[in-house]
Amino acid sequence: MTVAIIDYGSGNLHSAAKAFERAARGADDPERIVVTRDPDFVYRADRIVLPGVGAFADCRRGLDAVNGMADALTEAVRNKARPFFGICVGMQLMASRGKEHVITEGLNWIEGDVEKIAPRDESLKIPHMGWNTLDLAREHPVLERLPLGPKGRHAYFVHSYHLNARNEGDVLARADYGGPVTAIVAKDTAIGTQFHPEKSQRFGLALISNFLKWKP
Amino acid sequence: MILFPAIDLKNGQCVRLEQGDMARATVFNLDPAAQARSFVAQGFEYLHVVDLDGAFAGKPMNAQAVEAMLKAITIPLQLGGGIRDLGTVEAWLAKGVARVIIGTAAVRDPGLVKSAAKKYPGRVAVGLDARDGKVAVEGWAETSQVTALEIAQRFEDAGVAAIIFTDISRDGLLKGLNLEATIALADRISIPVIASGGLASIEDVKAMLRPLAKKLAGAIAGRALYDGRLDPAAALALIRTARNAAA
After folding, report:
1. How far apart are CA B237 and CA A214, in angstroms?
2. Number of domain units in chain B
3. Fewest Cβ atoms nearer than 10 Å: which of A89, B174, B186, B215?
């Protein structure tokens, strides 16, 4: 089994790959983690990870700059039903549109826009950087046995924008940062986290490990 | 085999499309319940209903018409179009739909088919609509790169009642069923396969009854029934004779 981590020039590849390798080591059927720029490899992979750091428009441009990658990704996830994990801007790209500085088309797997977060408390800084607990909105196999809620474990966030999903059912969990912030989305065989599981220690590894076991 | 008469719903009316093109719709009956009753009177034993608007919208759009049909008839009815979550599956089954048909969601969310079929064995069918062998989704507006066989194989041993295989390039054009491709699919999976798209005349019914096609569970008849090319009495008589000979 292979897990393709898409390399499209958008940061955090190394830490993402390390975290997936670590989580895979404990599995009964260890998966091969491959960082790749090859759309054909992505198309044939058993699972796909799309990391992402920076601005929405830059990431979209980066993805489009790899010839055939966006098509291979959509085909593999939407039609071949391969499990997909989007991280941070990789998760935001699942949305219809990004509204960071300019309006940019997303992959449109999850209806909604990526919008600036607006904490009610003005003392809360943007970007939102730090550790937050998560509140469950909907049960999902990748969240099985994860300690969520105010007494649960913390996930690490660095972002100024979040995915405002049109359909309530597409949101699995939220964080509170002067108001609700979309933390995990899921639709069909795809999930995405606004926070960085690769920097979220045991919680992040447990989440990745659930993802690697998930058979949608 | 079972011959399923098809009722396709658009804006509450019975229509037939050509190759799935919503712009090429012919209205055949303004009253779906009356159409359903008429098929029952002709001797059909199972209705095939598609909510076309629902297939595009991703949620039921002709619920009133379907409910009117369910009230009008006592034979079983299978329904597809816009069924993409467990809640919709359950709502239709509770309202008396004998079997739901999952299409787009079978491609994008195989887990839905598996969990629905596990919970409601025998009451979940998968609709695979292919254009040149590749599966089309979203009311046939999008074509994927995956083959019908690849998708059908996902559901082996999942308790799926049937695969309804439609050749889009033939649908509504009365060119005859694509039996070759349908039999090739049926040969490679254990789920019963129903042929659809292009059934034109009694010749298609005869072809379905040949030993070569015995793996097929049935066929869907659309336009040919509405424009009189297929005489339902003759078709059903042939099927009955074949059944009696087999018994």
Report:
1. 50
2. 1
3. B215
B109 CB neighbours in chain A (<8 A) are 81, 188-189, 216
Question: How far apart are the C-alpha atoms of B89 and B83, rounded to whole Å?
Answer: 6
* Domain carrying residue B7: 2-246
B96-134 residue pLDDT tens: 999 999 999 999 999 999 999 999 999 999 999 998 889
Q: At A127, which CATH number?
A: 3.40.50.880
Counting the structural domains of chain A, the total is: 1
> Mean pLDDT for each consecutive 10-residue tract of chain B (247 residues)?
97 92 92 97 98 94 98 97 96 98 94 96 96 85 89 95 93 88 95 95 96 93 94 97 87
Give yes or no for A111 touching B (CB within 8 A).
no
Contacts of B137 in chain A (CB under 8 A): 79
Helices B63-72 and B32-41 meet at what angle, rounded to 10?
A: 30
Contact A52, A93 (CB under 8 A): yes
CA distances in angstroms from B36 to A166, B46, B72, listed in the order given: 37, 10, 7
Taking contacts as CB-CB distances below 8 angstroms, the residues of chain A near B105 are 188
Residue A188 structural domain: 2-213
Structure tokens at B55: 């297939």
For CA atoms B32, B34, B38, B41, give the dihedral sign.
positive
Query: CA torsion B166→B172→B175→B177, rounded to 10°?
Result: 30
Would strands B99-102 and B124-131 be described as parallel, antiparallel, or unpaired?
parallel
pLDDT tens, residue by residue, A107-150: 999 999 999 999 999 899 999 999 999 999 999 999 999 999 99
Q: Specify the CATH number for the domain of residue B119.
A: 3.20.20.70
Q: What is the ipTM, given to two decimal places?
A: 0.77
Any idea which residues of B carry the catalytic annotation? 8, 129
**Mind telling me how many Å the CA of B54 is from chain A's nearest CA?**
18
Nearest chain A residue (CA) to B149? A80
Using an 8 Å Cβ cutoff, are A65 and A37 in contact?
no
